Amino acid sequence: MLKTHVKENNRRPVINTQLQNYIESLIKRNVYEHDIICSKCRSRIRRELQSQTLVDVATDDDENCAQGLPGPAEVISPKTLQLSISSTSKSHRRCIICKKENTRRHRLVVVPKESATQALIDKGIFISTNSRCCPDHLIGKYFKQNSLKTVQKSSSSSYFNRTDISELLERTRAVIKDTGKLNFDISSSLSDDDYVNLTGLTRKQFDAVALHVKDLRNSEVRSVRTCLAILLVKLRTGLSNSILSTLFSLKYHQIRRAVHSTRESLIQSFVPSFLGFNHITHQEFSQKHTTPTAKTLFANDNDGTAIFVLDGTYLYIQKKLVSPISKDDI
Ligand SMILES: [Zn+2]
Ligand SMILES: [Zn+2]
Q: Domain segments of the chain: what residues?
């Protein structure tokens, strides 16, 4: 194939990209649009490609998988390269973390690419495309800390194809490119002390609060965790939005929006259950949250009396340089 001595009337151009990719993987060199192939080879490869796609669809038992399958324009180059990178089990039926089976009641989801990269960077374990896991191992697109700890390798080496390797490089590159910014999504990115210094919360506390930020949309540029971090860092440090935008590698307006929407979300879903008079009963408060000293001093050791201290703290907020309100008005 692809020889110049192919008869004039028998030459066929390689215009189809699928065909082009497949021939490239067969002959291990670049194939260009002006290259030709004889009609016999062309139809043979066509048939081979078609049967390959059919096999891929047939071996997959779950309808969810259709989302992850490459479209007909892409072609799967064979996994021929063996590297000593450990990988998780190849089964699409079981969760790669807890091995639970996919059933109608317990639906597994395709492991997001971001968390696969996270596992590779943190643990050195490769998770192949279309692997599944239970949805509760994830926060947004990333694995939870304890889920990541339990990811187990099933083999110490794995087979890769060209797509795997180029994707792997591309995604690792993206992570390295982002190392300068504060990243609250990848656990290895910040230490436990960093969490306390930046947000005033420990990593565990941060995780807990992040679970309550529900009605906020995860987006490409900023995750729920990033939004929460932006708000907390702002509250703790009082840094201006422009400095925050540098720290988080985001645009000024994205910081502003993140602060606004996270605050709204916390007011909706977090505050009512943890702050204010309504989140706790009078009895629980007077019995468990009133100090013995206060009880003796103010209530003659009466268990039913609730005593609380009101305290005020100033929160510095940004004000426009040109503002109609002067300092004297505040
Ligand atoms: Zn030929
Ligand atoms: Zn699981």
A: 8-59, 81-177, 187-273, 281-320
